[in-house]
Fold:
Amino acid sequence: MNKIIKGNTVHTARTMMFLELSKVMDFSVDSDNYQESMKNNVFGKKSQDGIKKTSNFLTQLYGFDISTPKFKLLKHFWLESDINERQLISFIFAIKSDYLLRESLSVLANTKIRDKVAIELFMENIEKYHPKRFTDNTLRSVAQNIASSWKQAGFITGKVKNIRTQPDVSYKVVTFAMLLSFLEGDRGDFIMHSDCVNALCLGETRLRELAVEASKRDYLQYQYAGSVTSISFDKLIHKIGLDAI
Structure:
């Protein structure tokens, strides 16, 4: 298999950095001064080099550009969500920004609940996409970073044994994943099978139940009949200010 490198990744050095993201968002979400807050070390790093690197990695993953539909979406749901929902929407956003994290979807999808998620599984998956790209030590480090991001989102638990778990996914999180997929150009059943939605590791029945719940709460418009899925977001798009898409 040829080496495939698509877009950006921070997982050669960091994780999805949810704690650092939370500090930036909580400090800046009302004023939109994200870069300023990072420059002022809102995340509490001990050196200028640490501040610079953390700021660069966070910006690479999350953008912090309020002029973009994707970040407008993240900001809107951040303000509406609790801590568990924020972990998941940040993770979904990172999946779209980071190809190494995105490529790891199959590892979790193929691991049963309560089974161990060995670091070696992530290492084998990286090698599948990028054979011989990393040294053995670097490969393990990258795999550990990827596993840590899944852990921060609630899909893996345990300090020593990485056990596959399933976080509680709300209708808000499903709406976020579906609308992010929509913004990427997906429609209908392509939304249902997008990376954003697959990252939630839900079965189709539960996914459709949550779509119905979101529809009842006017987060989206959802219909499923004759094996055809229709999903739209007219009201939410207008509420967030994405009418131009």
Observations:
- The chain has three domains: 18-97, 100-164, 171-240.
- The longest strand covers residues 221-225.
- Strands lie at 156-157, 163-164, 221-225, 228-232.
- The radius of gyration is 18 Å.
